Amino acid sequence: MQDQPLVSIIIPTFNRAHLIGETLDSVLAQTYQNWECIVVDDGSTDGTETLMTDYVTKDTRFQYHQRPDSHLPGGNGARNYGFDLSKGEYVQWFDDDDVMLPVFLEVKLTAFTENNDLIICSGLMVDRDLNSIGILSYDDTVSLFKGFVLWRNQITTNCVLFKRQFLLNLNLFNPQILRGQESEFFSRIFFELSKTQYSILRRELFLYRQHDTTKSTKNEIYVPNFKTSETYVALENLKRSIVLNDPGLIQYFYRLLIHFLFRALEHQDKPNVKNTLSSLTKMIKPLNWWLVLQLEVLVNFLQVQKRSYHKIEMYFKTYKLFHD
């Protein structure tokens, strides 16, 4: 084991004492055994600490830490703190409710080439009882970045094993992001990657648990701080799409941001209305100044009226920035 590189597995957790045991048992069952597993607690109030005491006592490769105040609350703060503590040549972030298959680490490590900075695998989507319900898909007809932001490349934190040296040159997870944490991180990274820096494995190497409370259900509830984060991610990806000069992507993020803008109007969320309108119009003005003028006039009118108009929203959503 001494001549094998150390892999740091970093698991942020919050109130998952009923699930994280399965995750840790799957780490123990790895065919590749030279690892350290760093669990960072983001303020659990259940039995997580008691459970972790048992694992740390039985196997010193496990570590259990509380996220310090120097890192902001949330999964991103916990992920970043785990990286600060890690020592491995390779780094694998993993979720506290998912399960590694026994060859998860071995297969990914073996796949690295000299130029690779990261390896991406797939996973099996499972229900709460670990029954298979689907596979995370990958579309190799588009770029890694484009496929990811369109969710045609279904890549989660679990999918990616990193070389530590690569991560040292990056800003890691943005702790200010409250929603779309993985999306912000991977969008930023994938946009800059060359094809030689990564390899894709067409193998399902982990179980990705789906819970009853789905993202679509959560999205029905309007939380201003969440929308601020989602809007930020979309604006950054619109900016990248403009750099790529990709009309399809530009149109996609324009439409998404119109949706966010009108939801903010509907909920009288003035800060998000102001930020979204200002940032969006600044970016698309060089593409279509007439559209920008219409947006500014009508959105300001709707704010005074304190209501949103479905027909006006649909007009802007279906507005083509580029003509065929």
UniProtKB/TrEMBL annotation:
Record Pfam families: Glycos_transf_2
Entry GO MF terms: hexosyltransferase activity
Coiled coil: none
UniProt cross-references to Gene3D superfamilies, sorted A to Z: Spore Coat Polysaccharide Biosynthesis Protein SpsA, Chain A
Domain of life of the source: Bacteria
Keyword terms, alphabetized: Transferase
Residue ranges constituting the Glycosyltransferase 2-like domain according to the UniProt record: 8-127
Protein name (database record): Glycosyltransferase involved in cell wall biosynthesis
Organism this protein belongs to: Gelidibacter sediminis
